[in-house]
Design a protein that fits this description.
137 residues; alpha+beta; single chain
Length: 137
Amino acid sequence: MDGTGTPDWFFWISWGCPTLGALLSILYRRRAGKPIFPKVPADVRYVDRRGSAPFASNCLLVWVTADTLEIVPYFPFTLMFLPEVYGLERSIPISTIRDVKRPRFSLSNVIVTYGDEDRRLRLTVRRPNDLVAALQR
């Protein structure tokens, strides 16, 4: 024990567990082919570097290409299995998008309905009209 009454091993546990979690999440992402430092492709129709969704405030990269709507958290939110736990990563083919709405009374400013089960994705972006236009092309 040190002078404060804390066991000596407590220091190593308090630093070791988060470090191990970050290293394991990096290893998992590498093996799954997921980026740790995501990059926006060159051929995008729309990009927002500070998008938000439920459980993610201003930490998402949102972009639209000719084929997909991509939502990916940026570093350091790619660590500690946060994207997997909270479902922060989405790759939605444009062909499966059924509806794009701009709700009046909601914290989200764009709602995308997609898939056969009518799944909904609520997003908050800086230029919602541009996102809607990019998805409706």
